[in-house]
Amino acid sequence: MPLKRQNGWPQYVVIVGCGRLGSLLAGLLSEVGSSVVVIDIEESAFDLLTAGFSGFRIVGDAVEIEVLRAAKTHKADCLLATTEEDNVNLMVAQVARKVFNVPKVLARVFDPRREGVYREFDIETVSPTKLMADAFLASLENRGEE
Questions:
Q1: What confidence tens digit (pLDDT) does each residue in 77-113 have?
Q2: Quick check: 70 and 60 in contact, CB under 8 A?
Q3: Which 3 state secondary structure label does DSSP give 52?
Q4: What's phi and psi for 73, nearest 5 deg?
Q5: Nearest to residue 109, comparing CAs of 99, 96, 124, 122?
C-alpha cells in the first residue's frame, strides 16, 4: 500500500514518544506540511516540541489501544515508535501494523540483536546504537587515511 504523500512526505503521521527524537521529528514533519499527532505518557514531554509544531498532542500510554484510536491511527500513513523502551516500541509498532494497517511503521530499537524480531513482524527499525557504532568505525577508518 503506497504512502499518501504531499511534497514527498507522509500526510498523516503518528509519533509515539515525545522525547528528544520524537519531538524533533514532530517539529520537522510538521514544518514540511505533514499532519502530526504525538503521543506521550507524560504531559511535560510536550515541552520539548518546537514553536513550529502545529500538530496535536495526546497524553496517554500508546500501548493501550484506545489511545491509538484517539490518535486516529487507522488514518495514518506512518507511525514512528520513538520511545526509549524497545518493548514498548515493538508492541506499539505491531499493533499499528496488524490492527490499524498502517502502511509504514518505523521503530527505534536500542538493542541491535532485537532487529530480527522486528523484521519478523514487518517493522522497519532504526538502531541508534548501531548507527553510532558505524559512525565511530567510519571515523576510525578515515583517521588512518589522513
A1: 999 999 999 999 999 999 999 999 999 999 999 998 8
A2: yes
A3: coil
A4: -60, -30
A5: 124
* Cβ atoms 9, 32 nearer than 8 A: yes
Closest CA to 12 of 74, 62, 56, 77: 77
- What letters, b where the CB count within 10 A reaches 16 and e where it falls short, cover 117-135? ebeeeebebebeeeeeeee
pTM of the model: 0.90
Indicate the CATH number for domain 7-143: 3.40.50.720
Neighbouring CB atoms inside 10 A of 5's CB total 11
**Grid-cell match 484510536, residue found:** 69
